[in-house]
Amino acid sequence: KKDVLILAIESSCDETAASVVKNGREVLSNIISSQIELHKLYGGVVPEIASRKHIEKINQVIEEALKEADVTLDDLDAVGVTYGPGLVGALLVGVAEAKAISYARKLPLVGVHHIEGHISANYIENKDLEPPFVCLVVSGGHTHLVVVNDYGKYEIIGRTRDDAAGEAFDKVARAIGLGYPGGPKIDRLSREGDPEAIHFPKARIEGSPYDFSFSGLKSAVLNYLNGCRMKGEEVCRADVAASFQKAVTDVLVEHAIKAVKEYGYDKLAIAGGVASNSTLRTAMERACRNNKIKFYHPSPILCTDNAAMIGAAAYYEYIRGTRHGLDLNAVPNLKL
Ligand code: KG4
Ligand code: ZN
């Protein structure tokens, strides 16, 4: 059987990324141009700035990806691209680029759902992982518990009612003066703090055991900080970070393990930027071991936004016969 080489493009938020992936699981190149330094000034991603920067960078990033993989456009079998969800202006840059390459080189075009990409990141380093399994997707924009029934067949069994897990990390980080993006900073500072120092609430939603809510937790942190300020007490930021992080990870672990057990699977994967959190990884690993569940997770660089994961997802879509036309559009609120 002939190898399938896919050029994948990702531009849904603040990373301009391109990758060449062979047969869905072998990454030949994975180029990521991050805009974090630009958006830091504003404490979050500014959509207009993101779009402009994508336009500036995308050709260079694709060239680098092809060069590092040691292939040319002539070697490719298809072009994969994230077409949603995400920032519409940012998505459009990748989609237009993918369409142009597809048209010029007569290559099949495969649109990919960004979350399907995050989930598929698990296939890259875990050659034995195949559906069915349960995946906890925790990123800056999404918190989903997903049953992966087969390649391309997803069932969302739980989701956040308000903030995404990564959003909660970013907001709490801002409140304690850590800056953007908050997740990695809270992760680091927590190592110096006591996770039992402050008791923050863990929200559970009556009748929906797999749903999440993080806005109450965020408010509890803000109230705690205000309380300290009013009383003139000094805040131990490391304790706040560690205690907040524990409250988030406890809930994520609890819900994910419960889902795997009740749905009768024996495999759990995690995905998305927050899946690179060291406390979450350790806690999930331990819980899986105790419950005889096989635990899968991508390396941190494949957890946050990248195009290799889009290449992995595009491969399985390509094999299933998914093809998009040149009328493919960016869909900011695309459903999985
Ligand atoms: O998946 P991602 O790169 O972009 C989205 O699709 O949203 O996720 C970014 C999110 C940010 O909220 C960031 O703060 C969070 O992932 N994040 C982390 C860590 N690294 C990134 N959160 C907790 N711990 C980390 N180590
Ligand atoms: Zn993402």
From TrEMBL:
The keyword Oxidoreductase does not apply. Substrate binds at residues 137-141, 170, 183, 187, 277. Keywords: Acyltransferase, Cytoplasm, Iron, Metal-binding, Transferase, tRNA processing. It catalyses: L-threonylcarbamoyladenylate + adenosine(37) in tRNA = N(6)-L-threonylcarbamoyladenosine(37) in tRNA + AMP + H(+). InterPro entries: ATPase_NBD (IPR043129), Gcp-like_dom (IPR000905), KAE1/TsaD (IPR017861), TsaD (IPR022450). Required for the formation of a threonylcarbamoyl group on adenosine at position 37 (t(6)A37) in tRNAs that read codons beginning with adenine. Is involved in the transfer of the threonylcarbamoyl moiety of threonylcarbamoyl-AMP (TC-AMP) to the N6 group of A37, together with TsaE and TsaB. TsaD likely plays a direct catalytic role in this reaction. Fe cation binds at residues 114, 118, 305. It is found in: Cytoplasm. One of its GO terms (molecular function) is iron ion binding. CDD domains: ASKHA_NBD_TsaD_bac. GO terms for cellular component: cytoplasm. Its cofactor is Fe(2+). Its EC number is 2.3.1.234. It comes from Murimonas intestini. The gene is tsaD. Binds 1 Fe(2+) ion per subunit. It holds the Pfam family TsaD. Its main location: cytoplasm. One of its GO terms (biological process) is tRNA threonylcarbamoyladenosine modification. The keyword Kinase does not apply. Belongs to the KAE1 / TsaD family. It comes from the Bacteria. This is tRNA N6-adenosine threonylcarbamoyltransferase. It is an enzyme of class 2 (transferase). Residues 26-311 form the Gcp-like domain.
